[in-house]
Design a protein that fits this description.
With about 120 residues, the chain is mainly beta. The protein is about 15% helix and about 35% strand. A four-stranded mixed sheet has the order 1-4-3-2, with helices on one face. The chain has a four-stranded mixed sheet with strand order 5-8-7-6.
Length: about 120
């Protein structure tokens, strides 16, 4: 059904990253210690098969701006989230850009930890 079932974004300063993602998505990110790793969870519909993810601080997690890139759900119009990024301490790398009329739009930003992350929306 989905190519991916979960995504983890590495962080070094957990509280800074949690504050950043809480601000751009306008929600209070829940967190939990999972063994040696500290995780902050994005909102998703687990009960109905939604794909989710978390920010993670742990020994095996190192932020970076190369390699695999996660695309987060930008909602109905990713500009709502995108417009909060710089005020929250991130940097927009690629503004809202149409992929195709059928697929929608994407944008790319750097978070407070130096990760390259993307947003996607249909409109």
């Amino acid at each position: 059904m989905h190519a991916f079932t979960w995504v983890e974004i590495p962080v070094t300063d957990f509280e800074r990253a949690k504050k950043f993602y809480s601000k751009i998505f306008d929600f209070e990110m829940p967190q939990e210690q999972m063994g040696k790793d500290l995780m902050g969870f994005f909102q998703y519909d687990f009960e109905n098969g939604g794909v989710g993810g978390a920010i993670v601080k742990g020994e095996m997690y190192k932020p970076g701006n190369t390699g695999t890139m996660a695309y987060l759900d930008g909602g109905a119009d990713l500009n709502i989230v995108l417009n909060r990024i710089e005020d929250a301490g991130g940097k927009v790398q690629v503004p809202k850009t149409q992929i195709t009329p059928e697929i929608g739009f994407f944008a790319i930003f750097s978070d407070t930890e130096g990760n390259r992350v993307a947003l996607h929306s249909r409109k």
